Every structure is written in C-alpha cells, then in structure tokens.
Amino acid sequence: MSGPGRVDETEVDELSSGYQPTETVAFPAPRPHRQVHDVARRDVSQLLVDVARRVGGTLDLHRTLEHITQAVVDLLGYQVAVMNLVTAHGELEVVTVAGPAAVRQQLLGSRESLPRWQALLDGAQQLGSLRFVDHRAGRPPGTRDRFPELTVVDHRPAWHPEDALFAPLHAGDGSLLGVLSVDLPADGLRPNAHQRELLELLAVQASLALDHARLFAKLQRSEGSFQRTFEHSPVGMAIFGPDRRYLRANRAYCDFLQRAEADLLGHQPEEFTHADDQTLSTDVGDTVRLTGDDVSRVDKRYLLPDGRVVWGRLSLTPLAGPRGHLEVIAYLEDITESRAVVRELERRATTDTLTGLANRATFDHTLETLLLDPSAQVTVLFCDVDHFKSVNDTFGHAAGDELLRQIGRNVTGVLRAQDLAARLGGDEFVVLLTGGVTQAQAHSVAERIRQSTRRIASVQGHTIVTSISIGVAVRTPGVGSRELLGSADRALYESKRRGRDCIA
After folding, report:
1. Is this model's pTM higher than 0.90 or not?
2. Hey, how many other C-beta atoms are within 10 angstroms of the C-beta on 225?
3. How far apart, in whole angstroms, are the C-alpha atoms of residue 201 and residue 169?
C-alpha cells in the first residue's frame, strides 16, 4: 500500500525477500507470529503496564514514542508501526518507525501535508476512535485528486495493500497531535475487535506521552530561559533557601559585591551588609517568606572586601522550591550613584552653595518647626559683616566669596552641635540657639562669634581686617518665627547704629 506515512508493499517485499517488483502488486509472505487472540490476557496486561511505566518513566519524547510503536508491533501482530507527528509547519512527519531497518530508512523523516492527512482521516470508516480505509469501499470522499495513488486493485476479504488502519492522536483540546498507523499484519488478516481495542489503548498512551513530553519540553524551555536570564541579566539576582542562605548568585550580583559566587554560597546576606542595615533585609525577607507577599523592597548598604560602602536596592520575591520549601529570589540594583545624586540634590536644596552652611529655606523650616512647641526656648543671632561692600569693590567678588567662606567656618567653629548656622544671602548670617539659652548665655555665644571674625584674614594674597555686627533676640511666649526674626533684625540695626563690631 502507499499514501501518507504508509509502507510501499512492493518495496517492503523487495527489501525483505529479494523480490523484484513487477507491474503486479505483490503481497509479502505472512511471517510466523503468535496471533493476538492467542496471547494470554496476563501477558497483554503486563505489556500495557510496561508501556505505561516506560511512558511515565521518561521525559524524552523520542524514546517514549519508540516504546509505543514497538509495543504495537509486539502486541498487535503487525510488522510495521509508524508514528506521525504534526509539525509547526502544518505537516505530519514520520518520527519513529518500528519494523525492519529498511522500512525505517524508507519512512523516517518523510512528510505529508496536514490537509491531505485530514482529508484521508475524514473520509475513512470510523471504528471507535480509529480510522480504517477499506479498499472495498472505494476511494474515500474528497481524496480523488489529493491521493491518486489510492486505487482499488483487488477485492480480497483479507488485508489488502490499499487497506489502512490509523489511530489519530488528539490533545486535550481536541487538536490533532499526530497519527499512529499500523501495516503488514503478520497473519495477513484485517484487525479484529481485540486488536482494535488494544490499538486504541496504545493510542491513548501515545497522546498522554505527547502531552507529557511536550509539557516537559515547555518546562525545559522555560527553565532554560530562566537560566539564561539569571546568568546574563545585568541586574544582580540571587536565590536564598529557607534558612536565608545563598543557594545561587549570578555574575551581576557577584560583581556588585566584588565577591565570587563560592564566597557567598552557604552564607547569609547580613555577613556582607553594613552594620546599621543588617535588620532591614532580615525583616523584609521574613515578611516575604511568612506572608508570601509578591515583592518587598528595601534600600540598604553593603560592605565590599576593601571596606568601601555601596548602596543596593533589594527586591525579594517568593519562589516555590523543591519539596514545597519556599525559597526567595532577590533582585539587587546598584543605586550607589543615584543615592549620591539624591544626596547632592538634597544638599543643594538645604545648603548654601557658597559657604556650606544651611540656607534660608532650611533655617526658616527649622525655626518654624521649633516654634510649634509653645514652651520651646529659642534664640536667634542675626549677623552682618561690616563694610563687606568695600571688600568686593576693592578686591573683587572672588575675594569677597572667599572671605564669606572663612567667616562661615569661623562661626560654626564656636557653636555647639545642636546649634544651627545659616547664610541668608549676601553678607548676612543667622545663628539659631536651642536648649534654654538665657539672654546672658546668648550674648556670650555672640561674643565668641564676634571674636572669631575680628581678625586679620588673608584672602587671595590680600590682607583684610574684618569685623561683624550681631543682633540678639530671645523668644518670648506667643512669638512666632517672623516676629522673632524681626526682633533680631532690629537688634542688628541697633548694633550697626552703635558703630558696628558690637552686639545689641
């Protein structure tokens, strides 16, 4: 017989017995074989169990299908069993053949279009889930043009070269996965009911095997994709076990910590974390592990082998591990530079760029915050550099800027840690004293400031004698920030009226 995935009878006979084909279709001589109905039920059951065990015991699709096609030959009494699978290109390809080596060589890898196969199956006689092409019934409808080789040449009651028995293999959604076909019955007879039943059972095994193996292949592709993503991701990735110890770490993660993976495995991340941040990842990791939260994030500092500190943004996600253990996968992003940029922006937003002291916005915010407490004792010292305009006019603005920087350093040098010095702009400075400073103590601090600036300064090769005028205002109950700063400004004006270089 001939057709999709079927054996040419004359070629089989020629290969097996040396027969030279003529114009007459020749039947191969029946081969000695114990008939299926003679096989003990115990042997049949054992063989089916063996097939099922081998199907379930291997995830290799090719080996699985070889088991099934060989079982068809061993169990049903056919000399050839052929497995055709649907390809991604809309064809059915012969992937395994059980039978003589010459037949395997003839059929393996051959392909036929899916529409041609579908037309053949649709036009065939239904025998349960099987399809039988009976040469006595004539050509199947719709196949005259597609399968011109299917011609009726004899009407014998036995198996005929134009007969064909197929077992379509369907997925759970009903789509066609492939076709299992048998050929060359050893006894030369058409299949009986018992043979058809066994072929249906083996076809079910084949369908399950295909779903099983393809699911495994999909998982392998998914695992392979994860492995490639894990290893080559530019983002640091690590996996932690239930004991919070490293199980794996990719190259980017190791590069960030400047350690080899072997130096991490078996250790907990706290061993490489800054002392002030060690509880952060522990708390977040426990939250993920105990609650199963999708993602938890935290910014923390890590210690490099040379003692340097780097910042990382850690994102933790639960991951189902082996034997039901919940592992955690960590994504680590280097944010050292971004943190530095943020810190610089924050510094510029709160700091005077010339002197490094607090700026006016920071001073106003700090003062208003302190005055929210009605009982807070706050004192403001308003300072102004004497004759600063003449410094700029005589020596230039660069010299004036350097002088302001020196004065800023001198002022902060005589203050307590809890006090705040700020530059409001130009040559105006302000000092905020907290913690119950009395009027006398405030004047004492003002005097230290005045003395620190009342000296000869060397600026860009120029000798400059400086002095400063200071106004003092101590907060009284009910006074707000604007009133307190206004009182200090008026005191400063009084100091200048008295001749400068003094405190009022």
Report:
1. no
2. 10
3. 11
